Amino acid sequence: MTICLYGSPISTFARKVAIGLELKKLDYDLIDALTADRREQLRQLNPRLEVPVLTDGDLVIVNSGDILQYLDWRYPQYPLYPTAIEERVVARAFERLADQRFDPIVVDCSYWHWAEREDEPPPGLLNAARKDIDVLFERLETMLLSRPKPWPFQTPGVVECAWFANLAALRTFGLAIDSERFPAVKNWFGAMRTHPTFVADAQRTGAFLRDLKHLTHERKRLFWSGDRLEWLISRGFHQWLVGEIDAGRAVFPG
Ligand SMILES: N[C@@H](CCC(=O)N[C@@H](CS)C(=O)NCC(=O)O)C(=O)O
Asked: CA Rg, the chain, in Å?
């Protein structure tokens, strides 16, 4: 049976799954499903028109967390989730923290680096991001220090899959990990950046971003969904968003 990952090097959630597949040493075909010519195929697989989608034979699985859990159920070798239930609960919490809190901030700030825009981010956006990221890093720092044996001493798993792409994106738009305040986070990310699976992922996305103008991805109308909207609105950028919708620059899940 062939495993296919419908993803995209621009998608943080698809990168999370690609890293998971590689840590589990599974062979898979990687299809960029955010190109114009794949749109209808993606709609058939996921009416929300979101990646990642994983197909394994006739099975179709959407949503990065569900996909990684599926992979551990179906292919238990090289598990991504810890075996001890208490540790699994913590790992899931930190997977969610990346998916629902960190990813929205990073992605909302990233548009001025790859989308086709002439303007600057709305005033205050980057400062709001900095403040909220600090709060997240405080929790992450504590969790990393309290792990029974923090990776890199064991093996990377779901928490690393979920955080890597977003951590790697930070410095592109002038946000960074403060190594004095968050040394464990800094070292942890440093360890990921030397691991071949994470290096390969960063290279795929780096190559993609260098070649943007040759691509058929939508870069004018931004795709808004779930927690990325919540963060923007809750931090007071609703008027800016209304402007985007009125100007026809916003699209929403199918
Ligand atoms: N909860 C979903 C979120 C997936 C998601 O937000 N996907 C984005 C890319 S990271 C997407 O496909 N957006 C459609 C687009 O950009 O056209 C997951 O964890 O897989």
From this structure: 18
Distance between CA atoms of 167 and 102, rounded to whole angstroms? 9
For residue 75, give the nearest of 8, 1, 13, 9 by alpha carbon. 1
Please, are residues 204 and 9 in contact by the beta-carbon 8 Å criterion? yes
Asked whether residue 78 is domain-assigned, the answer is: no
What atom of ligand 1 comes closest to residue 107's alpha carbon?
10
For 77-132, the pLDDT digits (tens) are 999 999 999 989 999 999 999 999 999 999 999 999 989 999 999 999 999 999 99
The count of domains in the chain is: 1
Secondary structure class of 172 (helix, strand, coil): helix
Distance 98 CA to ligand 1 centre (A): 14
Q: Is 64 in the pocket of ligand 1 (CB under 6 A)?
A: yes
> What's the chain's length in residues?
254
Query: Does residue 254 form part of some domain?
Result: no
- Over the stretch 27-75, which tens digit does the pLDDT of each residue have? 999 999 999 999 999 999 999 999 999 999 999 999 999 999 999 999 9
CATH number of the domain that 142 lies in? 1.20.1050.10
The CB-side HSE value for 126 (13 A sphere, CA atoms) comes to 13
Does 91 reside within a domain? Answer: yes
Give the position, in ligand 1's atom list, of the atom nearest the Cα of 218.
17
CA pair distance 16, 225, nearest whole angstrom? 18
Query: Which residues of 49-170 form beta strands (DSSP E)?
Result: 53-56, 59-62
d(CA 80, CA 88): 10
In a domain, 95, yes or no: yes
